[in-house]
Amino acid sequence: MVKQKQEVISRFFAPKPKTPSSPSSQCDKPSSTPSQPSPPPKITTTVSFSPAKRLKSSEFISPINNSFKKPKLSSHTQNPISSFPNSNPSLHQKFLQKLLEPTDDGLEGSMKKPFLEESHSCNSKYTPLEQQVVELKNKYPDVLLMIEVGYKYRFFGKDAEIAARVLGIYAHIDHNFLTASIPTFRLNVHVRRLVSEGHKVGVVKQTETASIKAHGSNRGGPFTRGLSALYTKATIEAAEDLGGGEEGCGSLNNYLFCVVEKDILMENVDCGIESGFEVKIGVVAVETSTGDVVYSEFNDSFMRSGLEAILLSLSPAELLLGDPLSKRTQKLLLTYAGPSSNVRMERASCDCFKDGGALAELMSLFENNSDGDIEHLHDADGGGNGPAIKGIMDMPALTAQALALIMRHLKQFGLERILSCGASFRPHSSNIEMNLSANTLQQLEVLKNNSTGSDSGSLLKIMNHTLTIFGQRLLRHWVTHPLCDRNMIAARLDAVAEIAESAGGCNLSIGYHLLNEGNSDAAPAPNYVHSVLLSVLTTLGQSSDVQRGITRIFHKTATPSEFIAVVNAILLAAKQLHQLDIEAVQSSLLRNLIQTASSSSLMSFSAKFLSYLNKEAAEKGDLLNLICAADSQFSEVAEARSQVEVASEKLESLISLYRKQLRMPRLNFMNVSGTTHLIELPSDAKVPSNWVKVNSTKKTVRYHTPEVLTALDQLSLANEKLTVICRSAWNKFLGEFARHYSEFQAAVQALAALDCLYSLAILSRTKNYVRPTFVDDKDPVQIQIASGRHPVLESILEDNFVPNDTYLHEDQQYCQIVTGPNMGGKSCYIRQVALITIMAQVGSFVPASSAKLQVLDAIYTRMGASDNIQQGRSTFLEELSEASHILHNCSARSLVIMDELGRGTSTHDGVAIAYATLHYLLKQKSMVLFVTHYPKIAEIQKEFPSAVGTYHVSYLMTGRVNMSPKSGESDDNMDNEDVTYLYKLVPGISQRSFGFKVAQLAQLPPSCIQRAIMMASKLETLVQRRTGKGEKLFSEELITDGESIASDRILDKAGLLDKNDNRDVVQLTVAYMNFFRDLWSILENNDLAKKQEFMKIARSSAAGLIAR
Known about the structure:
Helix content: 40-55%
Number of strands: 28
Strand content: 5-15%
Distance between the termini: 76 Å
Number of helices: 36
């Protein structure tokens, strides 16, 4: 076993141990030899970095999740079920109570121990700094504090333990606490690393300088300190000091996700029983760095499939739980925010937001604005607070409660103003978008693959050719929310087709060169649309994230250099797009997006904002010279600067006076070690008595005169006043930008949409995709795909991928039952149909030779088999829950794909449930692709002859099977059958699944496989005998199968029959088996003597059969 890393502090650094003379100091049991004095204990401190030990030991629990651990009682012992009077509830009730019981982690947030009790030292005497740390930690118990001490930021107690583990820094005991430290100039890097691990980090800075402390009442105490900044994964990108950096927290989006719910009782009509598991859930997700606010309210089932779908779609970085929540909801959220996810979770009570309290809290955002700057909320005509208040008033009740909780949470970060932009509010699902379920996103691998959890091999990865971060962000939303409006799909397809056609009909290098020269007079030809977009998007991709940049400007947390970079990038993109001949653009969507991103007002505002700033001063971080005061704008800045100039000129003019007084015409002020305006004279020079000696050398003495000191004070005062005025002017300048934030946000969204359309155009050109056609909404629902290909596997297999056709029609065949061998390509086929449909409704070209589709309202999947132990779900419960969700939500315009439903239980139950489920879907008339290994399911075709078609993936077999090897035959020769998969879908049912070939690929022991083959034969024969169809089945094989393979099957079955059975059918079958065995022996034997011998035996057997 690998030894754990340890760092030990020797006795040399520890305080001297006390002599063991006092009996009271001996806390252990008495020694057996009291005459010998016990040696002093070796004082060491060991810091362990082992995750296993840290999980086992309560000493290493993060203070964020630090809670008392109580013995866990069974559900019926700890919380009796009031609805069951019996003292011994049924096993089913125990299971339900246990199933709905959340884990203990994270649920006891109110039982945190104060920081004072966390000290490992028995010494209760704290240093002044430690006392200050204890007070700060008790005030912010859930925050990992970084405390400024001199030129370092220090961690104390369990914060130091966490910092040592995450940052890999040294931790040691100092006085009463474990401590660790980092240099101040590395604050940015280390805060991001801690935040990316899911911690809430607070930076505590000194609130007084050394000079203020020396002249204040706190002369003898420690520096006063206070919390100056707070960071989490959902807020760090919008923070003032650390946001906008390249070292992000590993995600394009960092949503803060709030959940509230309300219990509702629904009557189950089918069963006639009341169910208490149904809830109404309200969610709000806020991306503080982009301004995106997503909300939704919906009824959810027992399995919380709706909530799970939103979680997978948004992938939030932080959860805010509005208590009270049901145990089932808590369990799902705790599973999502597991230890490996680094998702932070916080709880808040929403009791105060009932009875209209949430709306009152939200309205306070507009009434109590600290800056008094809400002009950006006004409508264009200047009246009212416009879309912000309207959007809040139209929200459902639970959604308003979640939004109020988020607003209260964001106030501690100073980011609540983002909720005042009503234009940023959008529902998570709407009538014009398809809302893919959690199962569909996972099982079709839309966002991540199922093997490693990365985006490699996912549909999004294949479709993503975007050049900007905000374009990639929007494409993710497009892929997870395909369109359900035929006109909007056609508009996207038109735009993609025009960009792709432009790319194929122009010289890309010439167009790109023209644009890079910046020649605004030379307007490109209409076929340069692709070149213009390539230039614009490439430039934006090389700059910072402008979407987050404009939001940081809105929050007033952007730096001057960041402001110039963001606005200049938008202005440059607008100028380049403005060069296009907009009348020559055919696509209406493309034309509208270009006009929005290059509007005259946008360029005018951008140029105006940039004209007010000094670029060189912004790069140097010189706030005093940043604002360019011109005309009447920023007159207070110009006046303050003139006062500084007057004070500086007055100070510099004093040197002429001293030149005359000392009769030294070459005398000048000098600066030494930061001290300015010194007069240096020889040590023997006589000076007035009121001159102040500052420092000296062996030969010279340096002085400050009273006039210089007065002038320096006046100059310092003028500079301080200028600093305050410039800071105020900068905030006012950022507030002016906030009035136009919506227009800049719309321009960035248009640029993101152009990036997505460009990505889809590149995809269609490089992959040789075709444009899908959509029939009218009044036409029957249909899916007609010729030579369809799986978009992901095609990129891996290239030309080796075998395409397949798909034909589903509402008035004809709308269900395909697909059978075939294991690993034959069944799942790949049904997945490719669903993925092609998603791509088409996103607005992309598709991998096929032609595609004619109807706009679907949903795509549902039930594939794979896996349990979910953390949420108390068995494999079969997972299967049936997914099937239940499909049956309750599918319609005639839905596509349903099911793969091997019913394999999580016994064969008869599985077949029955699969048959009944398919029957229900056929009655619903949904488009169905049903994969099964149960041939019995295909009998449903008799009830729906025109609606159901049976298909299988084809294969070729070579060699022969010897299912009953003779004695002495090696295991290697027991199965010489070779199966070649053709991966082509053909009509008919496959009678074999070739499970034993998969067992060989999995390298099961040959003896195990042989035993399985013989057991399968016995079970098959037993079933045939019990059903009374043995004679018919054997006769069919004798008549139809003329191959050696069929003969071997018959011979094997003959060996399994009981020859002492006196029934006529059995005896007749045995006689036929012997006869055919002799015939095959004749054909296979090359020895003429043996052939004659077998012919005699065969004649005798034939005579016996004739005599019967």
